[in-house]
Amino acid sequence: MLDRMMNATATSGASSTSKAAAAIMRFGGITSSDRFQEKVPDDHVSEEDGLLGIGVAETMLKWHAEAIGRCAELSPPNDV
Fold first, then answer.
1. Domain ranges of the chain
2. What does the alpha-carbon distance between residue 49 and residue 36 come to, in Å, rounded to a whole number?
3. What are phi and psi of 13, to 5 degrees?
4. What are the angstrom distances between the C-alpha of 33 and each of 20, 25, 39, 67?
5. Rounded distance, CA 2 to CA 27, Å?
6. Which of 26, 48, 69, 70 has the lowest tally of Cβ within 10 angstroms?
7. DSSP string, 18-43
8. What is the DSSP string of 53-75?
9. Are 20 and 9 a contacting pair, CB within 8 Å?
10. Confidence (pTM)
11. What does each of the 80 residues of the chain score in pLDDT, given as a tens digit?
C-alpha cells in the first residue's frame, strides 16, 4: 500500500504528496484537528513522582542480575 502511494506521489507531483500524507494519517486514525490541538497535561507532576522506591529498585536489580546471568550462559566462554 505504501509503495503504491509513493509511486502515485512520484508521478503526480507535490500536490498529491499532501494527499498521500492525509491518507496515511486517516489510516492511522489521526485527524488534522488532532494534530493542531494543544496538549494539556492531565495532572501536575511533582518531585516525589520521580523518587525510586526500595521495592522497585530491588525488582530492577533482580531483573538485571537475571539478564547478566543469561548473557553469561549464552555467550561463548572467551567473550565473558
1. 2-35+53-79
2. 29
3. 105, -170
4. 17, 11, 12, 44
5. 11
6. 48
7. HHHHHHHHHHTT--HHHHHSPP--SS
8. PHHHHHHHHHHHHHHHHHHHHHS
9. yes
10. 0.38
11. 566 655 655 555 556 677 777 777 777 776 666 555 556 666 777 777 778 889 999 999 999 999 999 999 998 888 76
Quick one: cell of 69?
A: 546471568
**What nine digits make up the cell of 4?**
503504491
C-alpha cell at 52: 525510586
What is the gyration radius of the CA atoms in the chain, in angstroms? 25
Residues belonging to the chain: 80
Residue 19 · residue 25 · CB < 8 Å? no
